């Protein structure tokens, strides 16, 4: 039975550069770092970087990471070197989403959702 999201893996052929970029974005170093894989703990979920992972391309999954302020997070990602993809927009019910492309071509989604609260 599914227990919930555990790990999202992004392709990172330039692993050292991707590790440095995500360390800045997340404001923390990885908890696991080897030449074949780097893992960050993001609110109890794993953001993984894999130099051998295959990009999903069109029709692939897009993961949205929760943020408190979608506009602020989107702008910060652009300043840190991400490329605009889909601007932040309200999709109803006060939920706001947007996506950027990280410097390695992965779609990185952000979501501000006042209805979603993590269990204590």
What keywords describe this structure?
2 domains, alpha/beta, 120 residues, four-stranded mixed β-sheet, 2,3-Dihydroxybiphenyl 1,2-Dioxygenase, domain 1, 38% strand, Signal recognition particle alu RNA binding heterodimer, srp9/1, globular
Rg (C-alpha, Å)? 14 Å
In terms of structural class, how would the helical and strand content be classed? alpha/beta
N-to-C SSE string, H for helix and E for strand: EHEEEEHEEE
* Domain module tally: 2
CATH class of the largest domain: Alpha Beta
- E-strand count: 8
CATH superfamily of the largest domain: 2,3-Dihydroxybiphenyl 1,2-Dioxygenase, domain 1
State the distance separating the first and last CA atoms. Answer: 22 Å
| Average pLDDT over all residues | 91
What is the count of DSSP helices, taking H or I runs of 4+ residues? 2
């Amino acid at each position: 039975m599914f227990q919930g999201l555990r790990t999202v893996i992004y392709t990172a052929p330039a692993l050292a550069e991707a590790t440095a970029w995500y360390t800045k974005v997340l404001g923390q170093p990885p908890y696991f770092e080897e030449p074949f894989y780097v893992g960050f703990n993001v609110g109890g979920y794993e953001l993984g970087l894999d130099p051998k992972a295959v990009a999903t391309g069109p029709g692939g999954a897009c993961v949205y990471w929760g943020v408190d302020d979608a506009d602020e997070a989107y702008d910060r990602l652009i300043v840190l070197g991400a490329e605009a993809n889909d601007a932040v927009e309200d999709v109803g019910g006060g939920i706001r989403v947007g996506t950027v492309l990280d410097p390695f071509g992965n779609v990185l989604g952000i979501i501000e959702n006042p209805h979603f609260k993590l269990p204590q």
